[in-house]
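Below is one protein, fold included:
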Amino acid sequence: MNGNAWTTIDQLARRFNEHDTALGLGQEEQWSLQVLKIAEETGEASQAVIGARGTNPRKESASWDEAHAEVADVAITALVALARMRPDDAPQYLDRQLAAKSAKFLSRGPAAVPAPTEPA
């Protein structure tokens, strides 16, 4: 992620901190509500995918572009949450977590397809 994106994420984090502090919310309550916001955005992304697939006749259809936008909202909201929780080192922390969590998948090479098992 480029530095400009982190600058914007940091600005959003500060803005939301100011807003929530003005409401009298403590730091841990602010963090908790921001994580709940991630869940809300995830639900909207799920709803957009269901709409794009047309699998719920009770709901209007959606486009994949709408699903993409909702997934971006999830990512932005999560990055803002991380910046609010770790204002001094969010980009570096994310880099470390990404390296650690991706290492087991990227060090193996192409995904192996398990051999079919014969019925017993």
